[in-house]
C-alpha cells in the first residue's frame, strides 16, 4: 500500500485508537490485492466512512468490510434467492401494515401488499424487498450492518431512516435521515443518496432524483397525499389499499387530484373524488368499481 505522509499519520493514529482498528488494518493488508481494485471514488467512500465516527467503531469497520465485499463481487446485481432455512419472511395483505423489530434494535414497517425476506449473520442483516414498500430505521448505534436488495440494485444504509418502494420496473428510495449508498445496479460507482433526497432507478439507469416530500412517507400515518397528481396515477396508488378492482376511463386522464386522503377507507376516498371531480362511480359489486366521465364534465 502507498500513501502520502499525512495519510500514513492519520492511519497510524487510527490504528492506535483501539485494538479492533489494528486487527482491521491487518485484515486490510491481508486483502491488499482485493483492495487494489478500488476505483478513486470507492477509495474516497472508504475514507469518508472512516471519518464518520458518529456511526460507532464496529459499524464503521463493517461498512468498510461491505465495501471490500462489493469490490470482490464486481458490483454485480444479485437477484433475490429462494427462501432458505434460517431466513425470516414477512408479508402484508391488502390495507395492512406490519411493524418488525430487528434483533439489533432496528425497525421495519411494511406497507400494504408488501413482502420482505430477512437473513441474519453475525455481521450483517440482509433484507430482500420482494414486493411493495418498506420503511427502514437502522439508528446510529446499530452494531450489525445492513444490506437492502431489490430487483434493480443493492443499497447500504449509513445510520439512517429511509423508504424503499419496489415498483413494476424500478426502485424508488426516499432518505428521511442519514445516508444510503446505491452499491450495485445501474451505476458503475457507488451513488450516495443523502437526507431529503429521493432517487428512482431501473436496472440500467438512474431515472429521477428529486427532493423528499410529505407524500413519500405519508402512508405510515395512514394517508395518501396528492399535489396536482394525475388521476390515473392517484388511482394506481389508491388501488394498493383497495379490496377489489378499480377501473378508470381513459377520458379522465387529464384530471388532477390534490388533497390528503385516508387509505383505510378507499370507498370513502372514491366518493370524495366523485364530489370534487366531474366523474361518476359505477359499482358492479363491492369489489368492482369503474370511474367514468360525468355526462356534464369537462376533461380538457
From TrEMBL:
Q: Where is the FecR N-terminal domain?
A: 3-30
FecR protein domain boundaries: 88-180
Listed name of the protein = Fe2+-dicitrate sensor, membrane component
InterPro entries recorded: FecR, FecR_N, Ferrdict_sens_TM
An MF annotation (GO) of this entry = sigma factor antagonist activity
